[in-house]
Amino acid sequence: MKNLLYATDFSENSIPAFHFASMLSERLKAKLHVLHVYDMKATFISTVSLTYGKREEIMYKEQLEKLEDFCKKNYGSELPNYMNLMVHEHGISAVGILDKVESLNADLILLGTKGSSVIKDLIIGSTATSLINNSYIPVLAVPNEYKSKPIDKIIYATAFEEADILAVRRLVEFAKPFDAEIKLVHVSTKNEYAGEDQMAWFRDMLEQKVAYKNISCDLRFSDDIFNTLYNYFMEEDAGIIAMLERESPGFFKGLWHKDTVKRMKLQLDRPLLSFHKKYLIQE
């Protein structure tokens, strides 16, 4: 994991994600691309006397200066060499971010979960949800009041699928630099067949396919999957909560419906890491 992409809207609520991105970049020894996506049409609506090229030039310079001020204010006057600042014009924030994912060959997107006003709340909320649904690389959403700290534990909710093995492999990239525990949890309902047997099978698969020893598994029994998982996440106090965005019908069809994922994102008070099943399988 060598290229991290952090996106900001300059709001106060995006600062914790900036601190987390900086901490993660330092520990992973990765390049951190700090991005602001702006909409020139909305900003320059009244400056009709300027040519489009001039407006474009002025806006680019202004936004880059704002980004530099934001970073220096929240990191320090001397920005580290691993930090690369950039701005990009696009009317839709999520599409602009994905443009840069492609051109930078980024490995991870980081962003905050709220903006600084009602309008920005809607924008950044829809941006985070759109990225979770459409990004082919993992998305890490950091809550607006989160205080960054070294990662000592990562919890991942598993459905005992092959894609879960692929997701755990990716989690190892986060865990290794911190020597963190990866804890897998599964909630078994009364209608599910042989949850304990499936867990035993999944453990065997992990031992064969994942070269990381600090992994443990936990099994809970409940028909209320969402709240059981949520309570488990809170009890365990993990540094990162991880999930897989699933498309096909099955055990987690209701749990990982996009509205429920958004609900989890809004309720959790720690970073939420999302992988998309479709893109994991295509790798």
CATH class of the largest domain: Alpha Beta
Classified in CATH, the superfamily of the largest domain is: HUPs
What is the CA-CA span between the terminal residues? 15 Å
| Strand percentage | 15-25%
The average pLDDT is 84
Uncertain runs are 115-124, 249-258
Which descriptors apply to this entry?
10 helices; elongated; ten-stranded mixed beta sheet; 283 residues; 21% strand; 45% helix; Rossmann fold; alpha/beta
Chart the SSEs and their pairings.
Blueprint: E1 3-7, H1 15-28, E2 31-38, H2 40-43, H3 52-75, E3 83-89, H4 93-104, E4 108-112, H5 118-134, E5 139-142, E6 153-157, H6 162-175, E7 181-188, H7 195-209, E8 215-221, H8 225-236, E9 240-245, H9 258-267, E10 272-276, H10 277-282
Parallel strand pairs: 1-2, 1-4, 2-3, 4-5, 6-7, 6-9, 7-8, 9-10
Antiparallel strand pairs: 5-10
